[in-house]
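User: I'm new to structure prediction. If I give you an amino acid sequence, what do you actually give back? Let's try with this one:
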Amino acid sequence: MNTIQDYLSSDTIDIALLLTLVLNKNTAELITHADYCLTSAEQQTLQKFIQQRADGTPFSYISGTKGFYHLTFKVTTDTLIPRPETELLIDIALTLFSKDTACQILDLGTGSGIIAITLADKNPHWQVVATDYSHAALEVAKANATSNIQFAQGSWFEPVNKQYFDLIISNPPYIKENDTHLKALTFEPISALTAGQDGLSGLRIIINNAPSHLNKNGYLLLEHGYDQQATIIKLLAQNFTNIQTFKDYNQQNRAVLAQLKN
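Assistant: Good question. You get back a string of structure tokens that encode the predicted 3D arrangement of the chain. For your 262 residues, that looks like this:
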């Protein structure tokens, strides 16, 4: 195979995406330049990418980027690949406070920074703090930042011991340690995926400690697994009120919003 059309006519997985990456062309340009013959260097790079993809490497790790909400983020194997389901958290958070209000926001387990950075970019008046246990993940998040965000390394609330927030938001690990879904996620960091035998260890820590870091009437917003919502509501009931549940775009239970009791 030499031309763009030769490759597009093959059954190679994600070949159009790989061609856009190698040739720096969009999909429309691939079609209009279908008779273009790839150079030897371009073919060599493309073959490397084809092999990586055939071996299961997600396209986002090959390209090094992934779109989320209105921004494009750098991703590495030290961070999860952003999922469209997590955009639900952004939609919910943006309805809670006025855009001009100087709110204090905490993003726990920020990873590549998609939640913290998106919220700060949409609302520059919000003061956002983002924590993560992984130094490598925080370096990716810092590189992605489009505005002034306070990044801090440590487990959950450790880096913000005496700070208080109007909103604590998190997409924590919530997959069970032996879940069969992990077989399809072998390229992503396991520590950002699993949370004990029931997948709830991180969520328990957040729910139990959030009241000590929330301002009066503050909110806690969490992403969770499709089958965990009922348990999370029970965990929230002691210290939270006005509990609301949300489904993702696939109509799966995906998020819970709760307000601190007075």
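You can read the tokens as a compact description of the fold. Here is one thing that stands out. The chain has two domains: 4-55, 68-260.
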